[in-house]
Design goal:
The protein is α/β, with parallel strands linked by helices and about 270 residues long. It has two domains: about 160 residues, NAD(P)-binding Rossmann-like Domain (Rossmann fold); about 90 residues, Orthogonal Bundle (ProC C-terminal domain-like fold). The protein contains twelve helices and seven strands. The protein has a seven-stranded mixed sheet with strand order 2-1-3-4-5-6-7, with helices on both faces. β6, α6 and β7 form a beta-alpha-beta unit. It is elongated, with a radius of gyration of 21 Å. The relative contact order is 0.09.
């Protein structure tokens, strides 16, 4: 591997793999930076080839042999077979995995000792460049490889690093969190429909409200509790609604859901 050039190979062209590729290429990086893409669904690969000009590998063996850094973007249940079947070929490679349930230690046990490993937890908003991506600290990548990985994932969202023991909590908050938010948006829109709004209008109001509120938290740095208080006038309509949410246990349900997700992630990793 040349010190200033990393040959990227992507294994898996599903939703997340494709999103990362699109973000990277749409950020101005040349398709030549991606050595090849491989997926059992060759139609997905061919679509990327036609749109961006990326090379499609004819086999896993070809892809791994031609690459310095491999992005593992396959389903978690495929990883064990992939690593076992191609074990020797991963020797000396940088392996960046986004598979849920595959922490750094588990990856180390499944791959050759000479493989350099980074575990990453992205989330689905990466598909529109608004992802939250967490690197598991303590990786064994070289500095050049790590900077490359930051550029790759930074093209689809915000990137931070956290210690391994927190990654199950990350899965439960940002990894699975979009599903909780979608459920809230759907329920908020349903409430609007019940109140007489046409569904498309109710959904637009709900989605934009959640988007704007999230930006208020992230861009102002003000605690969400304080922002909530600013909307709640004494004796007003908003505090009436908030009181119902508190009575129905919204906070407790969300906290319990996060805890259940974390526990499931821990079980999956064993």
């Amino acid at each position: 591997m040349r010190s200033n050039v990393i040959r990227l190979g992507v294994i898996g062209a599903g939703n997340m793999g494709e999103a990362i590729l699109r973000g990277y290429l749409n950020s101005g990086y040349a398709a030549e930076a991606i050595t090849a893409v491989f997926d059992l669904d060759q139609q997905k690969c061919l679509a990327l080839e036609q749109e961006f000009g990326v090379s499609v590998a004819s086999s896993l063996e070809e892809l791994i042999d031609r690459s310095d850094l491999l992005l593992i973007a396959v389903k978690p249940n495929v990883c064990a077979h992939l690593f076992s079947e191609q074990y020797d070929r991963f020797a000396g490679k940088a392996v960046v995995s986004i598979a849920a349930g595959w922490g750094g230690e588990r990856l180390k046990h499944a791959l050759p000792s000479t493989a350099r490993i980074l575990r990453v937890m992205p989330n689905t908003p990466a598909m529109i460049g608004q992802g939250m991506i967490v690197f598991e600290s303590g990786d064994s990548l070289t500095e050049i490889e790590r900077e490359f990985a930051k550029a790759l994932f930074g093209s689809v969202g915000d990137v931070i690093s956290l210690e391994p023991k927190l990654m199950h909590a990350v899965t439960a908050v940002s990894g699975s969190g979009p599903a909780y938010v979608y459920l809230f948006i759907e329920a908020l829109a349903d409430g609007g429909v019940k109140a007489g709004l046409p569904r498309p209008i109710a959904l637009k109001l709900a989605a934009q409200t959640v988007k704007g509120a999230a930006m208020m938290v992230s861009e102002t740095g003000v605690h969400p509790g304080e922002l909530k208080d600013r909307v709640c006038s004494p004796g007003g309509t908003t505090i009436e609604a908030v009181a119902v949410l508190e009575q129905k246990g919204l906070r407790g349900a969300i906290i319990a859901a996060v805890d259940a997700c974390r526990e499931k992630s821990e079980r999956m990793s064993k």
